[in-house]
Amino acid sequence: MLKLYTYYQSVAAHRVRIALNYKGAPYQSIFIDMDHSEHLGEQYLHLNPEGLVPALIVNDDLVITQSSAILEYIEERYPERPLLPQDRELRGRIRSLAQLFIADMQPMNVMRVYKYMQDEMGVDYDKRRAWYEHWMSFGFKAVESLLANKDDTGAFCFGDKPTLADVCLVPQVWNASKYGIDLSAYPTVRRIYRTCQTLSAFQAGAPETQADLLAQSS
Q1: Is the overall model pTM greater than 0.85, yes or no?
Q2: Which structural domain, as residue segments, surrounds residue 173?
């Protein structure tokens, strides 16, 4: 069985959980307590020297550590319920939007960046908050422009079935909502997010349903 090292608040791990759930792939969640620096322990660093989540353990010889690589692996291993269509041009567009979230938006708002800005650069809270708001607004404005009033935007980002783009959109919207970003200017993004949240795969992957968070309130 696949083993997924995960943390409830991780945007990258969130998207992988959704994809695994959507595919119906059996996997075991192994929770890494990043609040208490478990990701920096010797045992985990042996698996992933970057000390980040997610990490997918396929077998003793294969550990995949980047969410985009994990998502591609899942798509290839479990093709029965595809997140990428057969049409090559449409696959390119879906991957483009997915990478907007993975490569452009998320790296600008991860906790290690904030901690470095605070501890090493002495950047105060207001400026760190302004940084976060700027890059989230910059990204969501582009996403809204790419999706609004487009012929192939349906109930989801591309058509009426979830794709890799939706898998990547939902965690970023969840993160922005958690930290109080005003999303009122992005009605298409919000509509697609709400639609995704009606599906069990997205519900089961949500941070609020993860055992490491639930254990904190028990």
Answers
A1: yes
A2: 88-203
